[in-house]
Amino acid sequence: xxxxxxxxxxxxxxxxxxxxxxxxxxxxxxxxxxxxxxxxxxxxxxxxxxxxxxxxxxxxxxxxxxxxxxxxxxxxxxxxxxxxxxxxxxxxxxxxxxxxxxxxxxxxxxxxxxxxxxxxxxxxxxxxxxxxxxxxxxxxxxxxxxxxxxxxxxxxxxxxxxxxxxxxxxxxxxxxxxxxxxxxxxxxxxxxxxxxxxxxxxxxxxxxxxxxxxxxxxxxxxxxxxxxxxxxxxxxxxxxxxxxxxxxxxxxxxxxxxxxxxxxxxxxxxxxxxxxxxxxxxxxxxxxxxxxxxxxxxxxxxxxxxxxxxxxxxxxxxxxxxxxxxxxxxxxxxxxxxxxxxxxxx
Length: 346
Hints:
Radius of gyration: 27 Å
CATH topology of the largest domain: UDP N-Acetylglucosamine Acyltransferase, domain 1
Largest sheet: 12 strands, mixed
CATH superfamily of the largest domain: Hexapeptide repeat proteins
Number of domains: 3
CATH class of the largest domain: Mainly Beta
Helix content: 10-25%
Structural class: alpha/beta
Number of strands: 40
Shape: flat
Number of helices: 5
């Protein structure tokens, strides 16, 4: 389907520079732009591509000042990245939507089903599950007894949701994620063996949460592991038992949060961050990739880096010293030699 630049600009409330009648029917990255496609420029690192791209229309920020002529028609908007995301969302909604319950799905007779559902082949839905309206459950999903799933949630292929867990509305759970497996609870015994501690709590995922592929969220030992509304979890994240993640917190891939730790709202964790158990992390804290947190973070908005994590400015001061250690060692050896010579000359 073709769209004129003028139509796109009208939808985004943007300003056109160039041909308002030029049409696009696809999207592309700016460095791989093709005629008939729409792209965007948000990161200054990619500015060089706007002068050579073959994309027909490019979204740019209103304050963008080109250094050379640009062949493409520009649409100036307040935030090019957000505008492009809006178009992608519109494009996604325009695609044909999956509907219907496939005959190879296994659904217990005592399941409460909402309206306008999609349930794929080989999905298994156990006793007393409640599923809201407009839910999509892809093939080979397992949903255990007494699970509740809110409206407009999408559960992709191979997801496992253990018994008793609660999933809110508007959530997206990507392929291979496991919700509600046992927490890592083992009590050491006198004979050096470990006795498993039954994990009898649940997981509650509030509204508008997105969970990446192969991420695991453990059920609580007692009570609830809670993922608050608006949280976004990347792929391959481990959330342990009784953890609480505050509203609108985002966590990048391969991070791990140990049991009973509570993260505040609006936090940001980079990839491969590790947080030990039973900590409290304040609101709006940012933790850089590969950092390890071993104590409470009480100051709102703190920025941490390193292992063990310290304030990022202190980390970089320390890192600069670390990189100079070979040079400092040579200077120390030379200084020791000079001191020895001075002593011997007396």
